[in-house]
């Protein structure tokens, strides 16, 4: 039956940035669909764990700052202690720095590019090598943005990194599709999370964004749950290199 195609029972999922926002919602969604979720975060995932445990789901966490040089190695080592297979990787963790382009320092530029772009590649490569290639199966979901398609205002490094994510998603999908590894991305619209606190507290920007969203409201973290389950599941086995917008119609304007 079609709903069985969406079930994730017996699957293990790694989700970066699982402590809050979209990463928390994605973790809960994958756990509700039956996956064992391993949340990766630089601080405690206690709230996520509690929500998943209340649903009788299965959750473990790995605490690591993704900026540390050996982050991918630590994740691999600790993951192997928890499971002998990984089926899904969600590259969700990301940062945004809002500053006039003329004032962005090389350090700020590198910080955003490293976490949002370089580390996504490094972790994907590491998990694919260790788990997906030997298993001949796997799903990678990268988190893109409206700024994968548009320039944005005062966020040049973020725009560059999220535009790169769409390209990287296609590049990895092309190389790995024949190994039954599907690489796709979700491009969230304007969602109510920490990422947009600054925007939402600027009443003028907030109002102009809201007026441009055909759905007439900001997105909520839970709006992304269905897309995450779909791209993690058997239902999307013939979907490769695609970036799915969950944006209340923003890109359609
Ligand atoms: P968020 O609440 O700021 O979440 C970002 C996540 O990344 C948090 O878990 C954060 O951990 C984690 N993170 C940042 N730096 C890290 C590091 N060095 N090591 C480990 N974890 C780190 O915002 P969000 O909206 O849920 O963002 C999730 C993803 O969606 C990001 O890639 C973001 O760019 C993308 N996105 C968001 C929107 C939106 O409107 N909200 C739109 C498009 C795309 P801490 O809590 O410890 O900081």
Structural commentary:
The protein has one domain: Rossmann fold, CATH 3.40.50. It has eight helices and seven strands, in the order E-H-E-H-E-H-E-H-E-H-E-H-H-H-E. Helix 2 links the parallel strand 2 (36-41) and strand 3 (58-63). It has 253 residues and is α/β, with parallel strands linked by helices. The longest helix has 30 residues, at 106-135. It has helices at residues 21-32, 46-54, 71-82, 106-135, 156-176, 197-201, 203-212, 225-232; strands spanning 12-16, 36-41, 58-63, 88-91, 138-143, 181-188, 243-246. Helix 1 (21-32) crosses helix 8 (225-232) and helix 4 (106-135) runs parallel beside helix 5. The mean pLDDT is 98.
Could you outline the blueprint of secondary structure elements for this entry?
Layout lengths: L11 E5 L4 H12 L3 E6 L4 H9 L3 E6 L7 H12 L5 E4 L14 H30 L2 E6 L12 H21 L4 E8 L8 H5 L1 H10 L12 H8 L10 E4 L7
Parallel strand pairs: 1-2, 1-4, 2-3, 4-5, 5-6, 6-7
The site of NADP nicotinamide-adenine-dinucleotide phosphate (NAP) has 27 residues, from α1.
Tell me the strand percentage band: 15-25%
N- to C-terminal distance: 36 Å
Bound molecules: NADP nicotinamide-adenine-dinucleotide phosphate
Question: What is the CATH topology?
Answer: Rossmann fold
Outline: globular
Helix/strand order: EHEHEHEHEHEHHHE
Tell me the CATH architecture. 3-Layer(aba) Sandwich
CATH class bucket:
Alpha Beta
Number of strands: 7
Rounded to an integer in angstroms, the radius of gyration calculated over CA atoms is: 17 Å
């Amino acid at each position: 039956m079609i709903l069985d195609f969406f079930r994730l029972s017996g699957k293990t999922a790694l989700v970066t940035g699982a402590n809050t926002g979209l990463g928390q919602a994605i973790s809960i969604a994958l756990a509700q669909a039956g996956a064992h979720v391993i949340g990766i975060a630089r601080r405690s995932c206690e709230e996520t764990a509690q929500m998943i445990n209340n649903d009788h789901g299965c959750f473990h966490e790995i605490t690591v700052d993704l900026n540390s040089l050996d982050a991918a190695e630590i994740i691999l080592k600790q993951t192997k202690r928890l499971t002998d297979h990984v089926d899904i990787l969600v590259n969700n963790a990301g940062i945004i720095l809002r500053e006039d382009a003329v004032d962005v320092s090389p350090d700020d530029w590198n910080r955003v590019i490293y976490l949002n772009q370089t580390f996504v590649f490094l972790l994907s490569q590491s998990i694919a090598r260790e788990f997906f290639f030997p298993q001949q199966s796997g799903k990678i979901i990268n988190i893109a943005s409206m700024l994968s398609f548009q320039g944005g205002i005062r966020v040049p490094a973020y725009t560059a990194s999220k535009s790169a994510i769409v390209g990287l998603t296609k590049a990895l999908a092309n190389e790995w599709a024949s190994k039954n590894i599907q690489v796709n991305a979700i491009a969230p619209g304007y969602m109510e999370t920490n990422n947009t606190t600054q925007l939402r507290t600027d009443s003028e920007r907030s109002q102009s964004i809201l007026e441009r969203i055909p759905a007439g409201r900001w997105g909520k973290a839970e709006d992304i749950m269905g897309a995450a389950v779909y791209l993690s599941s058997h239902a999307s086995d013939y979907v490769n290199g695609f970036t799915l917008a969950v944006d209340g119609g923003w890109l359609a304007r």
